[in-house]
Amino acid sequence: MGRRSGSDAICNFVICNDSSLRSQPIIFNPDFFVEKLRHEKPEVFTELVVSNITRLIDLPGAELAQLMGEEDPKLPGANSTASGFFRSLMSLKRKEKGVVFGSPLTEEGIAQVSQLIEYLHKNLRAEGLFRVPGNSIRQQILKDALNSGTDIDLDSGEFHSNDVATLLKMFLGELPEPLLTHKHFHAHLKIADLTLFDEKGNKTSTPDKERQIEALQLLFLILPAPNRSLLKLLLDLLYQTAKKQDKNKMSAHNLALMFAPHILWPRNVTANDLQENITKLNNGVTFMIKHSQKLFKAPAYIRECARLHYLGSRAHTSKDDLDLLTSPSSKELQPLKSQKRSRLDTCHQEETQQRTEEALKELFRHVHNMPDSAKKKKLIRQFNKHSTALTPGSDVPTSPAPRRTRSRSFSGLIKRKVLGTPVVLERKSRDATPEPERVSKENVHLLQKCGSPAHMSQAKLKSLEGQKEESCRRMRAHLLSKDSSSL
Question: Which neighbouring-strand residues pair with 14?
Fold first, then answer.
């Protein structure tokens, strides 16, 4: 039963209760995003692949333009005046186009030819397979049947494996262009020249297999889809044939000699036109047969680039530090995280502000319950004046704050005891109210003994105020006696 996990789910999960299928391996195509990018955005895909091909092999401007399809391929022997009877004969054969043979490669043609490949997989032990020619009459009957699209029973015994093998080579040879295309001809010559370097940086004669495999992987990625499909079927057949060379006497090199003229050599050329390139081309096809099981896998960095093109990520996955897309999901999570953090900070500030206000209210109640006096009026005025003072939960202004002075008044000491931190008061201007009365040493000593005024009893506050008033009366009496004696 299929279930979608959410509205933005990419795929469905399938729950299978069949116990016979649980042991089957899960099939996953690692090149899924590569194929998706190739079909949906061919220009982006081609640019990505070709840029990595030029990193491995040196292609001049004209050869690069030919690889990109911007110019017509310039092939050896194209300007030769010696056309010859052999070249004319091949041209005439390709003009006799049927549904399959001699026509451009199509999916329908591949479906017909795949019958031949499937049959040959069952008869790989025939000695001299692909080298020994079959019966020409049977080959013509089989060719006409394939061109007409009729069903053929190759297992009936009417045809021999050599008939089928020869007809397969005939089909490849009558294609308008080789299976590996004319555009890729010069690139294959350059891949054959990839060799290792010695300690001094000089080229050696030892082929660099890793770079050759990587270059062929990239080059096969930009083949037309029908060519790539048939090439994969063909190379797999030749690989399996070479594995049974003890029976059929056909090694990978022998098979390359049979198929290189059909899948890699340019059309309308002879061996004299290719000259020294024949060895390179034959060795190239031999290499393809031996390593065919690795050549149709996209390199890891191409897979990652294709995946990130659709999914997005911040990870760097290649040595060249390719520019990768940023994940849209991470962009959405960042504001959510900042919003959550700001909500937590706001809750913490509100809690601190609430505690501060409760402590100030309790202090104000104690001051309000004090007996009427000049000191009580001063304390109430200071409460009213500094009601907008900064607290731990308030916002800090962005403009530079003026220099502050710490209050030494009796009310300031009470506030500092309640809040636990010194309260900063604004400096008073000269034309403002006079500076609050400084507390005496006796009051400070008494305040330290009594502890926080928020927890002092009403009696202690009254006694403290009374002591202060008594000290003030004594001071006034002393001043009056001093004045009277002077008079």
Answer: 2
| Percent of the chain as helix, strand, coil, to the nearest 5 | 60, 5, 40
Fill in the amino acid letter for 57.
I
Q: How many CB atoms lie within 10 A of CB 84?
A: 11
Partners of residue 405 on adjacent β-strands: 425
Nearest to 285 by CA among 418, 178, 205: 178
**DSSP type of residue 421:** S
Q: Go through 142-178 and write b for each residue having 16 or more CB atoms within 10 A of its CB, e for each that does not.
A: bbebbbeeeebebeeeebbbbbbbbbbbebbbbbeeb
Contact indicator for 272, 197 with CB cutoff of 8 Å: no
> Which conformational region is residue 418 in: left (phi greater than 0), alpha (psi within -120 to 50 degrees), or beta?
alpha
- Provide the b/e sequence for 425-444 (b: ≥16 CB within 10 Å): bbeeeeeeeeebeebeeebe
DSSP label of 231: H
CB atoms within 10 A of CB 116: 22
Q: Half-sphere exposure of 271 toward its Cβ, with a 13 Å CA cutoff?
A: 5
Report the alpha-carbon distance of residue 414 to residue 411 in Å, rounded: 5
Which among 147-161, 266-280, 286-300 has the top mean pLDDT?
286-300
Query: How is 162-203 classified by DSSP, letter by letter?
Result: HHHHHHHHHHHHTSSS-TT-STTHHHHHHHHT-EEE-TTS-E
Burial (0-12, 13-18, 19+ Cβ within 10 Å), 239: middle
317 CB burial (10 A radius; 0-12, 13-18, 19+)? middle
pLDDT in tens, 444-467: 454 454 444 444 455 566 666 677
The SS3 call for residue 205 is strand
Nearest Cα neighbor of 209 from 276, 302, 286 is 286
SS3 465: helix
pTM over 0.70: no
Q: What is the mean pLDDT of the chain?
A: 74
pLDDT at 392 over 70: no
Q: Can you spell out the DSSP letters for 99-129?
A: SSTTSPP-HHHHHHHHHHHHHHHT-TTSTTT
C-alpha count within 13 angstroms, C-beta hemisphere, residue 153: 4
Q: What are phi and psi of 278, to 5 degrees?
A: -60, -45
Q: 75 near 182, Cβ under 8 Å?
A: yes
**197: β partners:** 203
Closest to 320 measured CA to CA, from 46, 54, 61, 34: 54
